Amino acid sequence: MTTHGGSEPVFCTIVPPHVLDKLAQHEDPALSGPARRSLERDAFERTHRRLTTVVGAPAVAPAVAPDQPQRTLYDARHHTDLPGEKVRGEGAEPIKDATVNRAYAGLGATFELYLSAYGRNSIDGAGLPLDATVHYDRDYNNAFWNGEQMVFGDGDGEIFLDFTLPVDVIGHELTHGVTQYTANLTYFGQPGALNESLSDVFGSLIKQYTLGQTAAEADWLIGAGLLAPRVTGTALRSMKEPGTAYDDDVLGKDPQPATMDGFVRTGRDNGGVHINSGIPNHAFYLAATALGGHAWERAGQVWYDVLTGGELKEDALFADFGTLTVSAARARYGEGEELQAVLKAWEQVGVRTL
To answer: 0.90 exceeded by the pTM?
Structure first.
């Protein structure tokens, strides 16, 4: 494994800031209040992440066994001090709190996919213990990886439900940790969108692996089950059809493009990292469904090879990433259908590869 030596501090949330911005402007305080508080909390945690990066994150002990996760669950009890009170450790029986048990299972599912499919021992490849805090703050509309651990809000119940409900949300955020320890993609513009896309890709693969689904059987939705019943939508994002995940009178319409023809140029959301990620997301979906079978096996292997291979630069553009996937497909599978599927996928989304 190659670990880049960059120092770009990254604080990654599952709900894009443009969604919370929209909610924060609503006239109903039951909707705008939690959104504003969530934005304020995100800003605080983002600053904390930056300071942690400068000062240095605390050292962690290695996992007990190379083929077993080392999970610890904490309960913030609706406060914001991390990590909170320990409520479940590795190997302990489930407790009465379903949120704790879902988080525990999701951490395990993520560990299992990376180990079984790619031989990766935890997030850093060296047995990093997996810590998570649930019941963070009150009505907190987000979940995040802060560079050291996972944190889950309970949602406000009006727009968002419990953030431990979709296993792909857990996998998405933990994959930010994998990226942190490997390519360390800059969190702005196209490299930031690649950072987000890789988390969506492996988050979706973790869900598919857990459910035993083929590429054809998967829904390719990110965050299905997270939106409250009042919301007109199915998820936060769709890899199959970017731009169709929701169309709601409160949240607005899903802004993700599926191809470079719809690429959004903006200074918000770190240069549109949660918006333009729809393009590489769609490329992966096209490659995976063209190949068929289990998406984590061939398409996922190619994407993993690029993420961890050491050639992906921190400021990589879509074309750089696409070109590396072509090289990775050729190196691992030769001139066969895998290479053709990857080439055609990038062509279909309008990204040129060399």
So the answer is: yes
Dihedral of CA atoms 320, 257, 180, 332 in degrees, nearest 10, equals -50
- What is the rounded distance in angstroms from the CA atom of residue 77 to the CA atom of residue 319? 45
* Residue 130 host element (H or E): strand 130-134
Which stretches of 225-293 are DSSP H helices?
269-272, 278-291
For helices 189-211 and 98-118, the axis angle rounded to 10 degrees is 100
Cβ proximity of 311 and 328 under 8 Å:
no
- Nearest of 327, 349, 136 to residue 239 by alpha carbon: 349
What's the gap between Cα 282 and its chain centre? 15
d(CA 75, CA 97): 10
Three-class SS state of 89: strand
Catalytic positions, please? 173, 274
Q: Are the beta carbons of 103 and 164 closer than 8 angstroms?
A: yes
Burial class (CB in 10 A: 0-12, 13-18, 19+), 89: exposed
pLDDT in tens, 179-214: 999 999 999 999 999 999 999 999 999 999 999 999
Distance CA 273, CA 39 (A): 17
Which band of pLDDT confidence, cut at 50, 70 and 90, is reported for residue 151?
Answer: very high
Nearest residue to 1 (alpha-carbon basis) of 114, 85, 105: 114
Angle at 156 between CA 152 and CA 157, to 5 degrees: 110
The Cα–Cα gap between 144 and 13 comes to 4
Do residues 320 and 302 touch, judged by C-beta distance below 8 A? Answer: no
In this structure, are residues 194 and 316 in contact, taking their beta carbons and an 8 Å threshold?
Answer: yes
Q: Residue 247: beta bridge partners? A: 253
Of 176, 188, 186, 185, the closest CA to residue 270 belongs to 188
